[in-house]
Structure formats: structure tokens, C-alpha cells
Batch of 4 targets.
Target 1
Amino acid sequence: MTEVKEIPNSDWALQRYLYTRDISNAPVINLLLKQVDVIYQPRNEREVLEVLRIAKEEGATVVPRGAGTSGYGGVLPVKDIALLRISRRKTIMVDFTRMDDFVIDEENQIVECSPGAVWWEIEKKLNKKDLTLRVYPTSAPSSTVAGWIAQGGYGVGSLKYGGIADNVEKLRIADFSGIREVEGKDLKYYLGMEGTTGLITRAWIKVKEMEEMKYYGFNVSAKEANKIVFAGDHYAGLFLDAGYIKLKNEAFGTDMPEKDVLMVATTEKLDGDEALGEEIWEKRFYPMRVRRLGPGLVAAENVLPADSIPAYLNRLNKMIKKPHGSEIWYSKGRRGAVLSFIPSDERKFFSYALTWFNSIRAMKAAKKMRGIPYSTGFYLSSEAKLLFGAEYSELREFKRTVDPKWQLNPGKVFPVGVFPLAMKILQKVVP
């Protein structure tokens, strides 16, 4: 493959191996993955375009990567045979680590970011100017701006401000035809698209003034939590069920009461336990660290209407026989993103695979209750039509227009090959 020496790059075998991994470890999936041929770390848009030029000339596929903190396989390089292609194409990974600068526009309350900018670094700089992000993911200490935009989703602040898609003002995109700036209704072609329609090289994110926030804890059920969290103009709401509290206590040696608990972050005065609320708030990051109990973790993440969540949690408790727990970040529109955890020893293939089937059972249960999977990536590309609804056909046609040879992150979002079919079959056969 043609190499551009002035752009930082690596074809070191160990690094190429590590870049075939993300935070997930789904059984059997490794058989469908390959090592990339070269890893580029561009420092600016010009170098991104140069990498795309090489890919276009040589027919190589391009996989963008941020911090790899998502568990949906969006950054994993997929074998051509898994995509039902006979010929083997070279694969370039574009690691945006070096493109991490950002500029704060205080007057317009916008932060202009390069794709590799880390959310928490942005937040710390904003705070010095009495500003703050409206929303950020629970992986904010390490995850990148473009990574979350490309995947989509909800997090801290979504109760008031919605998902990341609701907080993007404008994007700059690199594709095989050059650079384009998009805003307004055209953003839909890139939000949650996992880089399949273009690589994000710049993002303008809405921020807000800092406010004096209070944090309240309530030992209430999921049904009672709905009444509290949607009763006022609150900033964030996080529900942890008793099973998850137990997992956290075991993983970190803490001694929180093993009861269902709701945390509300708000500027309003509430009749809750401030000490409990502050304790939960301070530990809001990296919920998947309970994987140390496995060692390993099976996760299921679905977005449901808030009034369906109590029944969904009850269903999980009846369905999953192993120790497990769930956390819920509430979003405006009376919805909640439910992330459920089942510790499992990933070194024991058979038992780990059986445990992993619970994520499929959870998704089936959520869909019956008007829910949808949290994201697509590689693992759940079979669910793209459900996630994107009536716009799916338009998005797929746009993909064909900007990437006619399907070189941009193939196998993600738009289902192709054997794996999406296998996932459909599994949903039919797994009880």
C-alpha cells in the first residue's frame, strides 16, 4: 500500500492487533474481524483528505477511530468475506488522536472542536469561563467528540437538552469529493452514521452558562422515579436499580444501601437526600467498570419510553438468572436509555456465549415495549431500519451517492453480509 511518510502512521503488528478491539468482547465476533494494513494519525484536514485520496486510488476501506469506548463495534475492521466480498481490500484506520484542539466562542455559547478532542478536557476549559457542556457521555474523561457524534446517544444532561444529536450546531465532513460544511436538516446524514457517509473533521457543539446545581437522592422504584424526574425542569436524572448498586459495592468495596435509587441534578429545591445524590453524581462516569467482577461483562442498552421502563426492568429480573443490574439516564421526551450489566467470565467461552444471549433477549423485550436499541455499529446494523425509521431509505441512498464503492467503514449502520442475517436469526431462535 502507498505510504505517505509525512503523515504519522504505523504498520506495527501489535498496534494493528490492538486496533481490532474496542471496549466490547462479543463471542465469535473476532472470526469476522481483520487487522488493518496501516494506521494513520492525521494532524489536520489536509492530511485526512490525503488519506482518503490514497484509499480511493487503491480501493481501500477506511475505518475512523476515536477512543474506542463504544461497545457496538463501530470502529472494528471487518473482513471482506464477512461482507460477502470475494476480493480482499486493504484497510486503513484513521486515528484522530492528534486532532484534539478546540476553540470556545463565549459570546455565542459554542465550542468548535476537532474530532479527537476529549469531552472532559473541553468541560474543564469551559468551566474556567463559567460555561459548561449541555450534554456529555459517561465516558467523557476519555471519549472523543466525533466518536459520540458518529455513534449518537444520550448521557449527562439529556433530561433537559436531549441527545448529542440535539446539541450539534454544525459539522465539517471529509469524503472522497473533499470537504463540506453541513448544518440544519443536512446533519441527519452524519449524526449516528459511524463515519459511513464521511469523516467528521470539525464540530460545533452548543454549550451553556454554568448554574449552581444541587444533587438529590431518592430511594424509590422505577415507577416512582418517573413521577419525580419529569415533574420539574431538571438537568439530569440517573436511576440505579438495587442489582447495579450491589455490583458496584462488590466491584469497588463501597457500602451503599442495596436499594433502587434515583439521582436528580437540578437548580430547583427538592425534598431529597443531598449526601446520597452527591455521592451518586461523583461516581457517574464509566459504569462498565463493574466488568472486573467477571472478569468480563455482557451489556444490553436500549432506549424506552419512560412509562415502559418499570415493566422492562421487571422482565429483565425474571429473565436473567445471573447477578445483574441496570442504570438509566433519562432524556427529554419522557424516555430513558437503559444500560444493563451482567458480569461474566469471558475466558469461559461456552458460559460467556450463553450469557451474551441475554443481550438479545433484553433487546427483544425492549422492542415489545416500544423501545429501540441504543445504537447500531457493527453488532446491531440489522436494527438500523428500526432506529432510523422512515428516513432509513433516504440515508442509504445518500450513502450510495457519497460512497458508491462502500469504502467508508463498511459493515456499520447499513447491514450487509452474514452477521446482520445471523443476528436476525438469533432473535428468532433465542427464547
Target 2
Amino acid sequence: MDAIQYYNELLYRMEELFYHELSDCASWKTEYVGIDFIQSKEIKGTTEDEIVSACIGEILGAGLADHVSYSIGGKGILLRLRIGGCRHLPKEIMLRKSGIKPYNCPITNMILDQLIEKLDYTTTYLADLDVDERNGECSVMAAIYATPDSVGVVSDWSKE
């Protein structure tokens, strides 16, 4: 067994246990998984594009994914990510095969963390994670709220 497989199996088991945790609160805490890596980097920027691009550069440079693309839409509150060749994909596949819809993406967590840390965003969260095993890609929709006033903004993301 190689190290990547080993760590994916550890993450899978943790997420499986958190998913079945009775209070239904533990799974929300997984937003902190992965952020230590990005916090150890010198991410600089003053705009969403600069922060997201800097994070992607570090993620790709470390070999955590083969490619990452993004767009921001939905009245400025929707961050879409497409992540290919991610080292965490086996974990997502194990979760899905055990009947659990994947709900935690360490790569997304890193980017959302830096929007909060560097741009002082009010809040962010991973809204949807779609795993395409055949193409080896994940599509992520994350909510990003820059200010308290933006928290009430509603957007139909299905039309984005």
C-alpha cells in the first residue's frame, strides 16, 4: 500500500464516522481539514482572483491535484471549482461506494480558508461536491460571502 492510499483510507474512515455521528454536527467541522497546508504558505493578494489563484498555484506545486480551474458567479457568492487528478479522489470514491455522498474537500477548504483569512470574508461553505470517477474530476460549488450584507443574497445556481 502506498502512502497516498493509506492517507485516503484514514480520511475515508474519519468522514464515514463523522457522517454517522448522531448529533449531525461533526461533519461540519471537517471544513478545517487541509487548511494547515495552505496556512503554512505565503498566500498574498487583495482580491478573490489573486487569493484563489495563489492557492491553486500552491496546490498544484505540491502535487495535490493535476489541474484546478475556477469561476465566480451567482451574484458574487458562488465559487465553482473543477479539480482534476486530485490525490483525495480515492477517498471520495470510497465514501460514495459505502452509500455516503462526499461532503468534504480539503482542496476547497484550503481556498475558502484563505478567503476568510486574507480578505476577511464573513463566511464560506462547501455547498455541493460532485465526483466524476470516470473523468477523475470533482466539481465543487461553494458559497462565499464577503460581507454580512451578502449573506442574505439569493441566487439560482442551477442557471449558472
Target 3
Amino acid sequence: MMARFLRCGGSLASFIHTHSLAMDVVTIPALSDNYMYLLIDKGSKVGIKKCAAIDPVNPSSILEKVKSLGLELTMALTTHHHQDHAGGNEELARLWSATYEIPKEKFPIYGGDRRVQACNKMVTHDSTIEIGDGLLVKCLFTPCHTSGHICYHVTEIGGDARNAVFTGDTLFLGGCGRFFEGNASQMYNALVKTLGRLPPSTSVYCGHEYTLKNLQFALTIEPNNEAIRCRLEEVIKKCNKGQATVPGNLFEEMETNPFMRVDRQEVLEHCCTTDPIKAMEILREKKDRF
């Protein structure tokens, strides 16, 4: 893995590049604490490697990176309609059109909500998308933060076992998104029943750099959880060095993220309930005040 640096909780700088046999992911910071991504198919059999942009809120940065890496941008995948994720879609289509001399309407912009800016490819739960010859994207419907939120689970076609999930504002490293258009039951389904059933090795690419504060909160919920304490120490070291905290993985989340641990006795006891959905509601209320 090649890493460049950012400041946790401050402005982001440069990018992170992670790779495997058929899949590359380039993380590009945007705004104050957002992440955009380039998902690259290294398995293209002929020609230039294909890539997709995920939540490309800063289109010029996306296209600069596409050009510098010698890639062909073929689509945009949008997790949800909020301006800090979908607000660059129309401009990206316009710049893409000028670059490739193809009408901007031909640029595929995927999303699960008609409020997604410039969306022309609607997806639902279990919809699939192929990127180049080597990557298969499965759409996961995870409503709560917004009613049309989609996470994108990526696997390699006929390649190694690496897989990744792009979670937008549903799952953060160590935390989850606010329940703007949903409720605790929906977030429980999204985190535990949908994302929680992906392979534990799944790399997690979230929409914001919130990891430090999330883990500080997690430790107040489970002060005796050594995994949280160790992970927090690692994150603090990264922050002190100006390093990024993404990607994480689902195994870490299931060990340290209280919102993915609402079935665990320690979390239930802290929330004074036996109902994991009620625990989810209580945790969100506590985190909103943290």
C-alpha cells in the first residue's frame, strides 16, 4: 500500500492508493473531511484500464488523477444525494464530455435516489454493475442516513479473494451516519444484517474522516474493550503523523464499532436494554451529544 497524508479532523491532503491483483482503489480527499474514490479495474484485457469515480464531489481532482494515472473514467457511483457526495456529478459529466468528446448524457451516473444530482442509472438492492473486465459491483440498499442510500460492494471476477465496500455515510470507521431520514431499526438492518454479513476481510471505504472521534466515543461505551483501546492508539499515532485512517475492514468494525456491536452483552448493558434496536437508538442519541 502506498499512503499519502491528511490531518484527522482537519483539511485533507493528497491520496491513498491500495491495490490487489485486479482491483486498485485511490482515495482522494475533498472539502474539509470527505473522501472520493477511484475504483480501478487492473484486469482489463486490452487497452486502457477502466475506472469508476465514487462520490466525486470535486470533479477536477477526479479527472486530474484519472489523467495522471492514464485511466479511462467510465462511470460515477453515488452513495446518496447529499451535496457533499453528489454535488459534483453534473460538472463531472460536463468535464467528461469535453475530455472524451461524447455527449454528457452518455456518462453513466448511478444512484439509488432520484434526488441524486444528474443520476441517469437508478439502482436497487442487489443490482449489479461491471467495471471493465475484472470488477463486479453489487448494490446494497442501506436506507437510514437518507432514504435512498446505496453501499457498493466490489469483488474481483475470477480473481483473488479481495473485496471492498464503499459505505458513504452509512458506516464510518468506528461509527455510523446520523439517522436523518430513517430510524434505529433501519440502521440495524443496514449495519448488522446487510454490511455485517459481508466477509470480515472486506475493506471498508467510508465517506468521511471521523475515525478518531468515533473511537473516542466507542471507548466510553466499552471502556474495557481492549480492541477499541488498541485501535484508538493506532489511530492517534496515524493522526499525529498526518496519516489517513482509511481503509478499515469489517473484522475491525465488528470488534470495535459500537453500532455494529449492539447485539453484544456489553453494549446492551451499557444502554440498559436487552433490545439491540433500542440500543442502536440510544447509542445514536449519545453520539449526537458527544
Target 4
Amino acid sequence: MKVIYKIAKSELSMLFYSPVAWLILVIFTFQTSMAFSGLFSDLVVDQAIGNRLWDVTERIYTNYRGLLSQVQQYLYLYIPLLTMGLMSKERNSGSIKLLFSSPITNTQIIIGKYFAMMIYALVLIAIILVYIIFGIFTIKDMDIPYTLSGLLGIYLLTCAYAAIGLFMSSLTSYQVVAAMCTLGVLALLNFVGQIGQDIPFLRDITYWLSIRGRSDELIGGLICSEDVLYFLIVITLFLMLSILKLKGERKKTVRKIAVSRYVGVILIAIFLGYLSSIPALMTFYDATITKQRTLTPNSQEVMKQLKGGLSVTTYVNLLEPNYEAGLPKNMNRDKRLFRQYIRFKPEMEMKYVYYYDKTKNESLDQRYPTLNDQERARELANGLELNFKMFLSPEEIKKQIDLSAEQNRFVRLIERENGQKAFLRIFDDMSKQPSEKEITAAMKRMVVPAIRVAFLAGHGERDIDRKGDREYYVFSQDITYREALINNGFDCYKLFLTQKGKIPENTDILVIADVKTPLAKEELDEIQRYIDKGGNVIIAGEPGRQDIMNPLMVSLGVKFMPGRLVQESENFSQTLVFAKVTREVAKIFPRFNWMLRWNYRVPMLDAVGLDYRTDAGFKVMAWLETDSTGCWNEMETTNFAENKAIFQPDAGEKEQVYTLALALSREIEGKEQRILIMSDADCLSNGEFSMKRRGVNTESPIFPNYAFSWLSYGEYPIDTTRPRSPDTKIYMGLEGIMWMNIGLMGFFPLALAACGIVIWAKRKRK
């Protein structure tokens, strides 16, 4: 150990007595200071102009634009300049012969020199640590472990680069050649992950060998044994190769034996890498304060209940627009979607089935108008350089599974060993892939039965099968829409009571929306029986339907008021009312508090006011209401396209706060019954879910999402919200930016430069 220490000390002396090491430190310091100051200043300015800050630690240090992410992007430029002379200069000066003739082993030489590089890497880390310490004193409740995890990632990456550079330096006596070779190997390790991804056996090897993104998880706050062991294995591999190189020079051996040693070391490294990537052998630590790199508690609870085997089979239709996500070359990337789930269920299997079958794809219709499905699939397979035989024909895939209900789209089938199944879909939005909420909802279906939602039909109600603007298809059972009930743990079906039908006993929620023709007495009685028994209900009204729908709510103590609500607006129709969340409900439900805090409104295109009593045996809570001014119940105007409504108190019109959504609850036989009454049925319509209005914060899926969560007692949709990170403030004003820039971009690098000059001058005098 003493010998290794002396070699390391000697190497550090030569390193810090040379201008190169100091020049790198000064440039690195200035570059990182400039990056940090820019990120920090942006948030200070945001805070100064009144914008709310959030996740300050992540935004400055660890996200894709953060300081640590920027450091890893240009770190590879510095290390080859440091390592190029580690062994090359020994050959140039002839001192390598002295080392070989001395009682120093090859291992001691390599480890000693590498130890010096590890210490230099710590100096680089110390520079970054200055910015973290600065943040500790200026950021409210800074997430320190989060940044330390990132520092670990940067340090391991630097050490890996140094080990590679040391090996390259041992191969040649030319320092420039050693530096170029190091850059070449680093480039190879960055791109090797893209090699052979179409070949099953080679795919996993090259993907593991790739160094690209290896420190991303650590910078992102997740310390995974696989990533840490990857760096340790790579470091050990190149150190062993360096030792073998010196051994070959020191003592000539038969070529076959020398080659076998190199091959053996590489194979051992690959085998250890394989072991480290086995899910059952992995360990994890989430360093973030909000545990954002770990499944939320609700998802973890679902995974605990999924006992026994579990498989996820991805069905990839070559004729469907989203096929590329499941191709063999993207398989490892696709599997990362389930990485957090595999952490809690290591035995989870991932399978892929490839086929072709008819589906909606306008692009193919335009490109190959005269070809049939088989010919189109063959053309695509040839263009993608894939073996057409790997794709099952329509007849062959139907023998395995019928995907017609899924429109033959890209879909995953989650299956337990007991035979329970659930589909997991991708969606027609920017993100495409399912998030934790949708994945957990699909898995939870096999633990907690889906919530059965019955939509009353037969009297002109909103239809869940039709796609017109006023219907309910999108929010209920559109498989391509992320927020649809069917994708979040609900099963929807139509309910006809016109032929003396009964409400099924397993109905969890009954939806009665915009009844256009009067219900028969038998139908009213059946609905009343369901309510009296404690069934959960949504009732959504419309102007002009008061006489038809009010009989439904007599026992509830609620009625739709006459007329229709209008709201003064310069940009929108008067009949469009923007409902706001009440403070009462925001205090009780955190989700609604979020809507209130950010002033999110629920658009209601045709609304009526709700009148209610509090003595009907229910706990009553208003969820949505109008503004206190500018809104009244219009009694006379009917043609709003040609006429403008004018407030007329003499006609019985009142300008006041109107309740637009009302929640009722009561205890029945040990169970809480929940009923939601809404003054507008359009807020759940197809047209509303695709509508964006400028100048108003509206997000149509938010309110129904919360409403159905309440009606299902929080079972579905899955709540994947996390606590807010406490780092929401910076203790520095605009006046501090200048001094920060002077200190970090001026004094800091100049101090290092001065230190280097002093040491270099002392060395020269000696």
C-alpha cells in the first residue's frame, strides 16, 4: 500500500506542477460557474417578477438542463487530456524500464497512477460542491441528498473515463494518440448500445456495455446497484487490461496465452454485468425528498397484492402507426417503462408478439393504395430490414388472441398466473406511452374489480357509443384517450329501464345525464329504489329539462332552477359559464385545492342553477359555483346567437353566486352513499374534452377525474400525486446576481489560476 501511495503522490506532484492540470481546473470552474449562474439567475428573476418557484433543486442541479447534466455532457473533453501522459510519458522518458527493473509490481504501478486520477476527480467534485454549498445557504429547504446522488454519478463517470484513458495511455508512447484513442473508446461506448439491437442475444450485451445515460439515474436521484456496479466493473476491466498490458511487456508470453487472458477478463466483466442486471439482485435507493424516482404508495400497495407470476405481453401490429415503439431495436428502451414496477416485482416477464392485421392507418392508405394488408406488411418489413416471417398473419394472431375490440392497435396484455388479464394501451397524445396512473390502474383491475358505471339510456340521454360533440364516448370508453374511464379502472355500459329493466346489483355508479323525454313511473321507482339502497349517482342537467329531471331529485332535496345561467364575457358566448371550485371543498380535498390555487375553471356551456335543502338527510357540500358578479339566471332570452341577454330583475332574474355542482352523502347500512349533481351535462361531452379556450385556465379531464375518484371511494382513478417539494424559494434578490457572477465566474477561477501560478513558480525555482 505504501508503494501505491508513493506512486500516487509522485503522479499528483507531476500533475499539479504542470500547467495542463491547472488550466483544466480553471476552464472547468469557469464553465460550470457560467452554467450555474445562468440557471440560478433565471429563477431569481422569475421569483422577482412574481412567478411561483417549484422544485428549485431539480431545476438548478439535476434536470436535463441542470448543472450536473451539463457537466456530464462535456466531461469527456477533459479527462483524455489528463490521462494521455500517465503511461505514455514513462515510455518517452525511458523511465518505464526503471519501473520494470524495480521491485514494484504491475498492479502497484497501475493502481498508484489511477489513485492519483481518483484524487484529481475529487478536486473536480469539490468545485461542483461549491455550487451545492452556495445553494444550501440560498435555497429554502434544498434537497441535499438529491444533489449528492448526482455528485456520486459524476464522480463514478469521471473515474470510468480515467480508467479507460489509463489503458489507452499504456498502449502507446504518443500522448496525442493516447488522447485520441481515449476519445474513440468513449465514443464507441456511447454508441455501442445501438449495435445489434435486432439480435436477441447481442441486444442485451451491447445495451449493457453502453455508457450513455449511465449516470442519468444517479443524477436523477436514484442510486441503483446496477448502475454503480456498471461503473465499478468498467473501471476494474480497464485497470486489469492495463495490468495485463504491462505484464506482457515485462515478461514475454505466448500470444495465445496473452490473448486468452484479455478475453477471459472481458468475459468475466460481461458475466458480472449480466449478474448485476438481474432484477432480483438489484437494490435501489431513492435520494429525492419526495421519492419521485419510486412508485407512489398507492402503486406500491397494488404491487404487494399481486402475488404469483406476472407477465406483460406487448402486441405489435406492423400496420398500426405506433409499431415502432415495440420493434426489437427499441425493446430495451420499451422495457424501461416498467423499470419501477420490476423493482417491486422482479419476476415480471416481458414478452413481445409481432403480427399484421387491418387497422386504421391513413398514411399506409396513401402510400400503398393498391396493396392488400399482407403486401403492405411485407413492404414495411423489407424497408425496416426485418424478417417478414416474424410477423403472424391475421389468422395466426386470432388463434392466440382477438384484438379487434382494441382496434388492432399497439397494446399490452397484463396477465397473472391465475389467468386474470387486463389491457394496457397507448394513447393518441404527445406522450403516447402510459404513465404510472394508467399502468397501475390496469394492474389493479386484477386485485380490485373495476368500477361498473351504468349510463341511463332510452330517453335521449348522452350516449357513450356515439362520437358527436354532445355525446359521452370520449370520456367513458375511448381507448385512445388517456383520461377515459375505461383506461382508469372503470367499465362502462348502457342501462335501459324502458322495458321494465332493473338496475344490476353490481352497479357501482349510475349516471343520468340530460334526460330529454319523461321517465315512466316504473323507471322512476327503480331509480329511487337504487338510491334508497345506497347506490352512488351522478345527475347532470341541462336548461329546458327541469320539469323532466326534477322528479328524480325530490328525495334528495335538490332541484334545477328555472331559466339558464349566463355570464358576461367579451370573448365567449354568454351561455358559457366558467365554474370555480368552492373554498369549502378545497379545504377538504387537496386535489381541489390545487384547482383553486391555480384558478382552474370548469367550463359549462349550458348550465342551470341548483337549489337545495339541507334537511333531506344528506350532508351537502357545494363543489362548484359561479362568480358573485356578472352571472344571473336568464329567464327571457332564448336565441343567444342573435340576441344579447340583459339582466332584468323585474323578470325574476337574480345576479348572485349560483351552485353548479353539489355533493350529497349519507350513511346507509355502514356504507357512505355519494351523489353528485351537476348543473350542466356538456362538461363531460366529447366536444368539451377536445376544446381549448385562450385566456382561461381550463382542463376538462380534471373535474370528472376527481368526481369519479370520490364516487369510487378513491379506488379509481389511481392517485399518483406526490407531496410538493419544499424547495420553493430562493433567499436572494436581483441585486445579488451581480455579486454572484463576480464571485463564481471571476474570483473563483482566478483564485485557482493564481494558486496554480504560485505552485508552478515555486516548482520552477526549485
